[in-house]
Specification:
mainly alpha; globular
């Protein structure tokens, strides 16, 4: 294969012998497609729900703040750990069998999690659930490429991107509804019917995978080193703000141990005769750049998903349900623009689609940064969030489809696992970075504003008298103290707003850098690289 085809000719297929040509699928397997899209939806939804409902979950198992902080980490760490193993298991047993077992296990785990009597039991079940759901996303892309007619790949990728972003942004509304009207246990129980539906769709809608006569041996060291190394680094990033980063010995231990294991994994995979993960696929141009772009995109998406709740909860005092009513406006427009993104991917260069997306995201960030004031509520965020919703759909679907055009379908398992790793790691880096940035910039703004709030200053006295007059009407004798408290609250609110504004400016700048990476990327080939080993002659490329 030529270099223009996407991957160097030296990259071997994952199996030890070439697969016989198979006819390209001609019909859309609707039940199977529903099943794998449910998997991507579930995988993202529950991790986000646990984040919003963490206070209620901590209270149920009598966990403190520090101990309870590991509840959300446990599930995503398991998803990072299982990613390398999912490649081998999916290649050996086929996506259908693995997804069936994983979905059934996830349904059972989700049902029994609320019955946890203590934190260690809850953490163990969260980790087990993460192991099961961690198989969903890496295997989804492989299923789409192998079972959809190539002319529909663009729409499949757009739906894949839609599921990831839809589940991310509706979770706050669902969590708020469960806590307000039902119970926190539905944060987990809502996964049971979804997972059972996934099992039924897989069982009746996907044919059994033929046995693989050339099963590669299990690369136990590679699985252990790669999965554990990535999991430790992710845990360090997720707990960094709470542990004060490098001022914590635990943080140092997690980062160093993870780095050593990942380095050992890379060295081992490049030297062993039977690597569990073919790194030549991951490192072949332009996939490294695409994975960086996916990480950048997740950084911008998750950071803004953090910033808006930060403002609404800290400055305006909104509850989770009210925050969700704002974030849902990022999710709703994607239902409309998902088909448009798929159509554009078929008719034009995916770099153009992703560039439009990044431009929209950057403009949305600058709209908030330029206009945010203490009187903003959900309505004022709607224009920017609608624009960001379109941008997210276009950017993610464009990047993923650009990568698909460089792939052989048999390499989709590796790309799916790499995409999962970049997505989770990029989102975690983005959240950790923006949370630290907001904290530091808020403290700086508070100090700077405090320099102008001094006892004896005329304007300060005038403001205190005004607050005291209002407070004294309902609480005689405590007016001065209440006035000082109100003034302090105004200072904290102003500092928080400035921290959020600074973060939106930085996110907008990072999105502009991602746009530059897209612009300088070389065009993709006209169709998926070397799909002939899988598909019969005469099949058409997807674009």
């Amino acid at each position: 294969m030529s270099e223009a085809g996407g991957l160097p000719a030296t990259v071997p297929p994952q199996s030890t012998a070439p697969s016989p040509p198979a006819a390209a699928p001609q019909a859309i397997p609707w039940l199977g497609l529903t099943a794998v899209l449910l998997g991507t939806f579930i995988s993202t939804l529950n991790g986000r729900l646990s984040t919003f409902g963490l206070a209620d979950i901590r209270g149920a198992v009598h966990a403190g703040f520090d101990d309870g902080a590991w509840i959300t980490t446990a599930q995503t760490v398991a998803q990072m750990f299982i990613a390398p193993i999912a490649i081998w298991v999916g290649g050996v047993y086929g996506p259908r069998r693995v997804l069936l077992d994983a979905a059934a296990a996830y349904a059972v785990i989700s049902f029994i999690i609320p019955f946890s009597t203590n934190l260690p039991m809850l953490l163990a079940l969260q980790f087990a659930g993460g192991m099961a759901s961690g198989c969903f996303i890496p295997l989804t892309l492989s299923f789409l490429l192998r079972n959809l007619p190539p002319r529909y790949w663009a729409y499949g990728v757009a739906m894949y991107a839609l599921n990831l972003e839809l589940s991310l942004n509706i979770s706050a509304s669902l969590e708020g509804f469960y806590v307000e009207h039902l119970s926190w246990v539905w944060i987990f129980w809502q996964n049971v019917p979804l997972a059972v539906g996934m099992v039924l769709c897989l069982h009746f809608g996907v044919p059994r995978d033929p046995p693989n006569p050339n099963r590669p041996p299990a690369d136990l060291f590679g699985f252990a080193a790669g999965g554990l190394g990535l999991a430790l680094i992710y845990a360090a990033l997720d707990q960094g703000n709470r542990l004060d980063w490098l001022n914590s010995g635990l943080e140092w231990g997690l980062l160093l141990a993870g780095a050593v294991l990942v380095i050992g994994f890379v060295i081992h995979e490049t030297r062993t005769a039977h690597p569990g993960v073919d790194l030549r696929i991951v490192f072949a141009a332009p996939l490294p750049r695409l994975l960086v772009l996916i990480a950048f995109l997740r950084l911008t998406i998750l950071s803004t998903a953090y910033l808006i709740p930060q403002y609404l909860q800290v400055v305006r005092g909104f509850r989770a349900l009210q925050v969700g009513q704002t974030l849902i406006w990022i999710a709703a427009p994607q239902l409309i623009f998902c088909p448009l993104a798929g159509l554009m991917l078929r008719r034009t260069d995916p770099r153009l689609v992703s560039s439009i997306g990044f431009i929209f995201i950057a403009v949305a960030c600058l709209m908030v940064a330029h206009g945010l004031t203490p009187v903003w509520n959900s309505d004022q965020f709607l224009p920017s969030q609608m624009l960001q919703a379109i941008g997210q759909s276009f950017a993610l679907s464009g990047i993923v489809f650009f990568g698909v055009l460089h792939l052989r379908p048999q390499d989709a398992l590796t790309f799916g696992a790499a995409l999962q790793t970049a997505r989770l790691m990029g989102g975690e880096i983005g959240t950790a970075f923006v949370a630290t940035l907001v904290r530091v910039r808020t403290q700086t703004a508070s100090n700077l504003i405090g320099l102008h709030v001094q006892i004896g200053d005329g304007q300060v006295l005038q403001r205190l008298q005004a607050y005291g007059a209002v407070a004294g009407r309902s609480d005689t004798g405590l007016g001065p103290a209440r006035a000082a408290g109100l003034l302090g609250g105004m200072v904290r609110s102003a500092a928080s707003i400035q921290g959020v504004i600074d973060a939106f400016v930085v996110v907008g700048a990072l999105t502009a850098l991602a746009l530059l990476l897209v612009v300088v990327t070389r065009p993709a080939p006209l169709g998926p690289a070397s799909h002939r080993p899988l598909f019969a002659p005469g099949d058409t490329a997807p674009s």
